Q: What sequence folds into this?
């Protein structure tokens, strides 16, 4: 399916404190994102640390997000798993709570074949009536949605898109060729936002936009207007920040970056660790270079 969302979706962090999820800060961050012009918010994706959250915390976050966002942007919940039955159940739960769409990462750790991927996405999409975005991030999962497989799942009626974070532009171009006109391709790597948009990507699902939503939104808007030079001017300014967001494993750096601009976002949950001191200077310098205003 086409046109679920276009433009910018932020893959949001989940702020924690010693008691659990810090809903006050989470609400502030949602408002900051919407003020920045985002088209959608991805909640409980990789950047949101769902792997270290309890089911009750996830439900509370979803319920809060739906109420807080209140139709001001599309709400997309991460519900993928390495257990198809669990992914199906999570998708049904998210739909019942009020999700506009789902983000379903490929199975991880136990992996699967390309045939297994097709069956996985058929099961998830068949269990819900809302749009589903497949998430290809082989660096984390060990599974790559090959272009031929992307073509096959693009025929699933409510498969709305593929978030591409494989890092291989040649593969992404081939995937785009194969799915064009049936489902969307979204950039899942901030440093490839412009190339993916240039070949017809519908939008970006961004980590860096936790810190700078207005700037990433401008890039997507300018690309939609075929204003490549202007888009590159902004992207050039953001590239050191994008690199800084991955100086350690995501979301360690971006969580520090959100704190650096004024949000009491806390630190990642173990086994992730706070950003190392040397890397804090890298992030601070990148924020200053990108001219991001502190709150």
A:
């Amino acid at each position: 399916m086409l046109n679920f969302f276009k433009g910018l979706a932020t893959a949001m962090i989940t702020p924690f404190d010693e008691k659990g999820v810090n809903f006050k800060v989470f609400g502030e961050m949602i408002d900051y994102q919407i003020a920045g012009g985002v088209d959608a918010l991805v909640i409980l994706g990789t950047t949101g640390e769902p792997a270290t959250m309890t089911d009750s915390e996830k439900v509370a976050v979803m319920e809060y997000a739906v109420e807080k966002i209140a139709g001001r942007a599309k709400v997309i919940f991460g519900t993928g798993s390495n257990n198809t039955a669990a992914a199906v159940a999570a998708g049904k739960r998210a739909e019942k709570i009020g999700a506009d769409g789902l983000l379903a990462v490929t199975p991880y750790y136990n992996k699967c074949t390309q045939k297994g991927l097709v069956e996985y996405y058929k099961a998830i999409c068949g269990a819900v009536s809302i749009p589903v975005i497949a998430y290809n991030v082989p660096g984390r999962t060990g599974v790559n949605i090959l272009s031929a497989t992307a073509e096959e799942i693009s025929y699933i009626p409510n498969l709305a898109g593929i978030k591409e974070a494989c890092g291989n532009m040649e593969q992404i171009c081939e995937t785009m060729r194969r799915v064009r006109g049936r489902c969307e391709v979204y950039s899942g790597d901030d440093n490839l936002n412009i190339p993916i948009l240039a070949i017809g990507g519908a939008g970006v699902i961004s980590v860096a936009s936790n810190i700078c939503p207005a700037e990433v939104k401008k890039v997507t808007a300018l690309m939609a207007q075929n204003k490549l030079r202007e888009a590159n001017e902004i992207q050039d300014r953001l590239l050191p920040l994008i690199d800084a967001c991955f100086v350690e494993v995501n979301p360690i750096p971006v969580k520090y970056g959100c704190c650096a601009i004024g949000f009491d976002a806390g630190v990642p949950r173990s086994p992730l660790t706070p950003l190392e001191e040397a890397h804090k200077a890298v992030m601070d310098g990148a924020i200053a270079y990108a001219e991001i205003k502190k709150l």
